[in-house]
Structures are given as structure tokens and as C-alpha cells.
Design the sequence.
């Protein structure tokens, strides 16, 4: 069985196809890469507002990974009610790890989204 790459599984950010010289925030289940000063400069200097809007939408899509936290929380409760302490403990640990990953992914995504918001609010002026 062939292994799927991250970009095949998560999709490729469409804003990169516009060749607007916007930075690649990455495609990862654990969130975008950390925002750097040169990323901010490139986004704020971009004249292609459609590409910036697509970047914002891609960053916002990381907020959907919160469902993984809900899944592990439900599993913990169900295993506890089923009197399966080993499974409940493992699920509780997974819940903690998942919650930490989700918080970091959302924090990073929100940084990218905030810069895109600032550029879009400026309108046509770069």
C-alpha cells in the first residue's frame, strides 16, 4: 500500500497556485508552521487580495481540528462508564495530548489569519 503525503491527505493551499509570492504556511495536521517576520512583510505587501483571502481561509480551516478533542473526551467518558479503567486512562492521556496540539495549531493559525485580516482591511493599498 502506497503512503500518502501530508499534502495529499490535507490538500494543498490554493493561494499558492496564484503565484502572489505569499509564504507557504505548510500543510500539516498539527497546524501551520510558526509565523516569521518575513511572512508578515510578504502578506502585507501582497497586491492580490484574492490570494490573501484564500490564505486567510486556509488558516481558518485549522479551527476544525477541535473535533479531535471532542472525540477523545467522549471516548474517555464512554470507557469510564463501561468500567474499563485502562482504556479510560489511555484515552484521558490522549485527550491531554490532543488538547495541547489543538491549542497550538489554533494559536499559530490565528496568527496567520490576523495578518491576512490586517492586509484585507487595508484594501487596495499595499
Sequence:
Amino acid at each position: 500500500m502506497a503512503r500518502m503525503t501530508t499534502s495529499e491527505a490535507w490538500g494543498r493551499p490554493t493561494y499558492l497556485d496564484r503565484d502572489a509570492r505569499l509564504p507557504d504556511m505548510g500543510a500539516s495536521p498539527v497546524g501551520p508552521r510558526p509565523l516569521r517576520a518575513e511572512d508578515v512583510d510578504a502578506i502585507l505587501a501582497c497586491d492580490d487580495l484574492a490570494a490573501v483571502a484564500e490564505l486567510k481561509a486556509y488558516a481558518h480551516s485549522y479551527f476544525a481540528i477541535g473535533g479531535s478533542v471532542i472525540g477523545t473526551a467522549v471516548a474517555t467518558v464512554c470507557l469510564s462508564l463501561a468500567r474499563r479503567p485502562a482504556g479510560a486512562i489511555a484515552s484521558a492521556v490522549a485527550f491531554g495530548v490532543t488538547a495541547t496540539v489543538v491549542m497550538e495549531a489554533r494559536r499559530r493559525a490565528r496568527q496567520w489569519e490576523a495578518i491576512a485580516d490586517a492586509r484585507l482591511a487595508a484594501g487596495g493599498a499595499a
